[in-house]
Amino acid sequence: MLVDSAPEQRAETAPAPPSRQAIRAVGLLVSLALLVLVALASIAIGAKALPLDQVWHGLFHGTGTYSDVVVDDRISRTVLGLLVGAALGLSGAVLQALTRNPLADPGLLGINAGASAAVVTAITYFGVTSLSGYVWFAFFGAAGVGALVWFLGGSRGATPVRLALAGTAISAALYGYLQAVMIMDDAALGKMRFWTVGSLASATDSTIKQVLPFLVVGTVVALALARPLNAMAMGDDTARALGADLNRTRALSMAAATVLCGAATAACGPIVFVGLMVPHVVRSFTGPDLRWILPYATVLSPVLLLGADVVGRMVARPAELQVGIVTAVLGGPVFIYLVRRRRTAQL
């Protein structure tokens, strides 16, 4: 009896389907390419229209003309947007993993409130008027609140629920203080009105240099936490069995998120929705593995932030909408849609 071996041969010679790892890697490369395109658009497009030849000249042959100065300003703005977007997305992903809450963001742990309260204190009681002064007050305000939340949440015995409750309570108290000071001080009200909406318009080389060391350190620590956070996602007992140090992982996660959010908020003000939405979107096609969620969030969050900034510069010419307003307007409906999708992955 003859046996047809063709099916077996076809099975042996048929190409194997691409692995999920390979698909994720390709997707990350595509995300990087998208980031480059958005960054170029951020430099080329602004509230004032410039011909592409003038943009090109400002990039590579700047001689101090008006167009060259505009391009230089846009480059600083774009670089700051890249750094802040990556910081917000990465910190949001870490906080969601730490609290096991896919809706967590920097506001949940009081970090934005701490930075805002520190800035209004600097304006009202210390006479600080420059952005370079705001940066340091905002950063240390965020760091102080992060440490306080860690302490009130139980320190070495901290749990996701305790951290979230402590952050919510401190946020409520600080925003009450913030509103009281702003009502009593017209100067603080005027300055905070601009700062609290979140903006990249005041980006300078000095601001970038001040926050860059903190963002680099926070990014390195956050990316290194992917494996222990993966273990913690399976429950404390399982994580211990896998050799994860829960206290150290939680402490480092809090520290990384605080450094990233504090530096980003200090530079641009509290920009909402980026750290909340992007990790949630990323999780829908990477799955729950933080070894992929964290890099994807680091790359795609600046895409959202810079894209929103470009939109804000185009829709209100010759004026512009602040990026914090645009992210809220664009992000709200998109996030509601994603939450309602059945395919959206859960933590």
Write up what this structure looks like.
- This protein has helices at 6-13, 20-44, 52-60, 66-99, 111-125, 131-152, 160-184, 186-195, 205-224, 226-233, 236-241, 246-268, 274-286, 290-315, 323-340.
- Helix 5 runs antiparallel to helix 8.
- The chain is 76% helix and 0% strand.
- It starts with 5 loop residues before the first helix and ends in a 7-residue tail after the last helix.
- Residues 8-16 and 342-347 have low confidence and may be disordered.
- It is built from 15 helices and no strands.
- By secondary structure, it is an all-alpha fold.
- The longest helix has 34 residues, at 66-99.
- The percent range for strand residues is under 5%
The H-and-E topology, N to C, reads as: HHHHHHHHHHHHHHH
Number of strands: 0
Ends distance: 56 Å
Largest sheet: none
- The protein's oligomeric status is single chain
The SS-based structural class is mainly alpha
What is the strand and helix layout of this fold?
Layout: H1 6-13, H2 20-44, H3 52-60, H4 66-99, H5 111-125, H6 131-152, H7 160-184, H8 186-195, H9 205-224, H10 226-233, H11 236-241, H12 246-268, H13 274-286, H14 290-315, H15 323-340
Helix pairs in contact: 2-4, 2-14, 3-4, 4-9, 4-12, 4-13, 4-14, 5-6, 5-7, 5-8, 5-12, 6-7, 6-12, 7-8, 9-12, 13-14, 13-15, 14-15
